[in-house]
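User: Predict the structure for this protein chain, please.
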Amino acid sequence: MNSQESNKSGDKNINKAKDNHPESQGRRDMLKALVTVPVVGAMAYGIYKKQKFDKSQRDVSDVFSLSKESAKIAELQPGGELIRLGIIGCGIRGKQLLRALGFATPEYLQTRIDAAKKDKKDTRYKDFKEQ
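Assistant: Here is the predicted structure, written as structure tokens:
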């Protein structure tokens, strides 16, 4: 009889365990798993966008297979050959950029020379020549 009583008490423990974990627990686990799907999808999309951005930001030297060495600049030769450069239709901004590169029209240089002669504090011509 003791064994039957112990079996009955064992069955009661099993029933109590089932009551503590109802069948809806499996559905809850499934819902938790399904909630993570959009999060994983958003993370995958973020990784894709980052890789696409990184690929678009490649260095020009990678695209054209250029070396990383800097260009060598030729030394200025006194009495060297005159190079005539002509740019058509560059507008005011183009003229400003050319002056910044060291190329100026003779008219511009003459106005700077005249201004320097009138006012000794005007150093724009000197600054231009030193660049």
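Residues 113 and 119 are 10 Å apart (CA to CA).
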